[in-house]
């Protein structure tokens, strides 16, 4: 579903990503982790073709990315950027914008129905009519997540989706992400700073440091030495109730 081969990207003579090779299939939830400035957001922007690679290959659904135009990519990929500015409109209208790649001119009944469904799933009914400018940071973040989920791409990119959310909402969003990936056979990439949530919800991990892939693979193969080296902090990986946990 998503494959990169020796992907390189530089900006103003600074190498931002170096030789990144990954290969994920539908049903995979890959957590992209790594210190600040490691290149996590840049990697997603390259896969979405918001920026252009210097060299290497990217293929989506076994087709080189060069064959996709922006409209096709916006149908294929639901993308939640790290930050989004709020523009005055109701929560419902904001979420409806996620259906834009599927609309010709105006939303149809199907678009409204899909919005309604996601509003219910994310418990946003009570905010439906509210102006997004009057939401808290966490409430707005949930609305943005709803907007990317209603887009219904086969590929889901979430860049730090649970920032600003309390623990209940963090778990709810990660549960929804994992369940949707399974039910709809999506290929999901999620940038996370919380290593325990990454280990709980992802089956694969991509660990970046200074633009280099220092680990990519099944989470069970991740070693504490690699994590400690990446974050320059002494971390321990333990097994608790059958799950890997990080302690520090
Ligand atoms: N527009 C830009 N101009 C110059 N440098 C940039 C620009 N965007 C990103 N960079 C640099 O590229 C590198 C990777 O940035 P990126 O945002 O991908 O990191 P990240 O791993 O997502 O970081 P964080 O965890 O802090 O969000 C950083 O060194 C950053 O300073």
From TrEMBL:
A Pfam entry, by short name: ABC_tran
UniProt keyword annotations, A-Z: ATP-binding, Nucleotide-binding, Transport
UniProt xrefs under PROSITE patterns: ABC_TRANSPORTER_1, ABC_TRANSPORTER_2
Segments forming domain ABC transporter: 2-235
A GO term, aspect molecular function: ATP hydrolysis activity
Family statement: Belongs to the ABC transporter superfamily.
Protein name (Swiss-Prot/TrEMBL): Iron ABC transporter ATP-binding protein
